[in-house]
Design goal:
Length: about 220
């Protein structure tokens, strides 16, 4: 067994954190990180793969053409967004390039994690299917749709229709709540998040300690 295999063989308590656009995934993940959890954000990883000269750029240019790259070698996001909204086949081709690379980079980051447990931030965890069996718990950050719309309109300066179009491509609030093991309700001020994060952090620490002490059939 090589070094990587023996590292992968160690039990690890993995949590998948998800939520609709603007529900507060990053805000909550930051609170867990401040308490010592290792946080790996798949959106940030995806972003770095398509940043100037990112690892996915050669394959993307080959697939979609140089017109989808900016002069500095990054993905032209606006152009790609317009294409995949209009053409589901293009979305599949984009995902076919990005998803395996995100998986690989995410696994590599997890091998370096030093926290007592790992939180993977995965916006489309429930939609994408393969993540569910890769984590021990699914944590959904939950908020009413009206709150989502208001937050994203404010943060991104997007019109309401565009925010609702993005939300329409995601599972509903009810579906997400059903799929989750744990739920944090983020419909009020930031101070309401702290006790919820503290309670779950204590639970995850205890579960992680329990996992390390027993054989882990999942790995
Ligand atoms: P995205 O899906 O777009 O990545 P997200 O789920 O990571 O979003 P955040 O970026 O954490 O969501 O939050 C969206 C916006 O709402 C941010 O501007 C954030 O500061 C704000 N926000 C989140 N939670 C609260 C809260 N409880 N009170 C006030 N503002 C909040």
């Amino acid at each position: 067994m090589d070094k990587q295999d023996s590292t992968r063989g160690m039990p690890r308590f993995d949590v998948g954190l998800t939520g609709g656009i603007g529900c507060g995934k990053t805000t909550v993940a930051d609170l867990f990180a401040a308490r010592g959890a290792s946080v790996i954000d798949t959106d940030q990883i995806a972003h770095s793969l398509t940043a100037p000269h990112g690892a996915a750029m050669p394959a993307l240019v080959e697939e979609f053409g140089a017109a989808f790259a900016t002069p500095d070698g990054a993905l032209d996001r606006a152009k790609m967004r317009a294409l995949v909204f209009a053409d589901p086949g293009a979305r599949s081709r984009l995902e076919g390039i990005l998803h395996p690379r995100i998986r690989e980079a995410t696994a590599a980051a997890a091998l370096l994690a030093t926290g007592p447990y790992v939180i993977f931030v995965v916006p489309l965890l429930i939609e994408s299917g393969t993540w569910r069996e890769r984590v021990v718990r699914v944590l959904a950050i939950d908020c009413p749709e009206e709150v989502q719309v208001a937050r994203v309109m404010t943060r991104n300066g997007l019109p309401e229709a565009q925010v609702r179009a993005i939300m329409a491509a995601q599972v509903t609030r009810a579906q997400r709540r059903l799929a989750a093991d744990d739920i944090i309700l983020n419909d009020d001020g930031l101070d309401t998040l702290v006790p919820q994060v503290d309670r779950l952090h204590a639970f995850y620490l205890a579960e992680a300690a329990r996992l390390v002490g027993v054989p882990n059939e999942r790995l």
